[in-house]
Amino acid sequence: xxxSNFIIESGxxxxxxxVDEVDKAVFVGRFSxxxxxxxxxxxxxxxxxxxxDKGKISYPLIxxxxxxxxxxxxxxxxxxxxxxxxxxxxxxxxxxxL
Length: 98
What we know:
Layout: E1 6-7, H1 15-20, E2 24-35, E3 41-53, E4 56-61, E5 65-69, H2 70-75, E6 77-87, E7 90-97
Parallel strand pairs: 1-7
Antiparallel strand pairs: 2-3, 3-4, 3-5, 6-7
């Protein structure tokens, strides 16, 4: 799985529906980091990140780092938005991960 050929198909929820169901979360608008393709591990800086509390944006996050495993992350997707953006590195709707 490489970013240049990875496309997530649109789902059935609106952005508001995805967000309304969230008690506490981090919204990641952009991610700047690296992924090890052989094992799926990733780490990097959150860009355009916000702390969300009870479905509302509480405040912006600055200097936030995230890490995890992209293969495990994909198994924990609990919602995907109807709208999607096709970018030069693939297509991405909003999605929620538990």
